[in-house]
Amino acid sequence: xxxxxxxxxxxxxxxxxxxxxxxxxxxxxxxxxxxxxxxxxxxxxxxxxxxxxxxxxxxxxxxxxxxxxxxxxxxxxxxxxxxxxxxxxxxxxxxxxxxxxxxxxxxxxxxxxxxxxxxxxxxxxxxxxxxxxxxxxxxxxxxxxxxxxxxxxxxxxxxxxxxxxxxxxxxxxxxxxxxxxxxxxxxxxxxxxxxxxxxxxxxxxxxxxxxxxxxxxxxxxxxxxxxxxxxxxxxxxxxxxxxxxxxxxxxxxxxxxxxxxxxxxxxxxxxxxxxxxxxxxxxxxxxxxxxxxxxxx
Length: 297
Ligand code: NAP
Hints:
Elements: E1 4-5, H1 8-30, E2 35-41, H2 45-60, E3 64-70, H3 76-88, E4 94-97, H4 107-113, H5 125-133, H6 141-154, E5 161-165, H7 172-181, E6 185-189, H8 196-201, E7 205-208, E8 226-229, E9 233-236, E10 243-246, H9 251-257, E11 260-261, H10 269-287
Helix pairs in contact: 1-10, 2-10, 6-7, 6-10
Bound molecules: NADP nicotinamide-adenine-dinucleotide phosphate.
């Protein structure tokens, strides 16, 4: 048996088309483009790449992109003042502060300063709480993207056993909440979990968000399970001096056992920015008091 490959790249492209259509409709209704502001502090090379692609994809979707680049030694008070300004700027619908922040800044304090109704990343405690109690809010982009892929692949998730490996605030915990809201029976595994292979073997759905290359082996996976690999790990390639990306799952092994698997790259990765655009657009509709059907996007 060979598992189906879940094509996150194609799904993300179709999501961006939908965002583009709704962004055009928003502009026609309001006379302005929906806007996403991205704040980058410092010169972390990976963050610079992310911010560049976020800006490019925002513009391609017909939205306005506002980029704010601050030097690494910016005082925290200056960043908080900028966030305050973005919170009240009517042209800005979504705000994202690229993490990680330099060591002298308190990330929780900075996230708490963002208006929760413009919190496109869904990291504000108000949005964490809204997700917990099932109120409309904003959900972190990577786990929401994983959920979209799962629903596209499986339809209803009701009653399925889901195991999420990893309990970070940005992936594992919100992923578990989303799966619970879909009526899965959810287990959250982490570094202290006893007999992880046995726990994973019970899962109809496995979401691996660990950051350990190819940790999840084929014999951990229940035949026919759906495997979502969030991990992005750089490892040495066969060719001297080169590297390649692998996930948290032994992809070749999983392909022989699972029902469906996300590849790395090309699975979860491309979903994150597409969902960010989706969140910013939803913020624009909500904050303008415009109707957006629950299943519109
Ligand atoms: P993180 O904050 O480092 O969390 C990792 C989690 O894995 C922790 O809960 C940790 O448990 C658990 N863990 C570590 N070793 C383990 C082990 N041996 N067995 C079981 N659990 C173990 O990482 P993250 O931010 O959630 O990211 C996870 C991975 O996803 C990374 O590879 C990251 O690059 C990737 N990622 C991808 C995207 C994307 O595709 N766009 C977005 C975000 C993250 P403890 O809590 O007990 O320490």
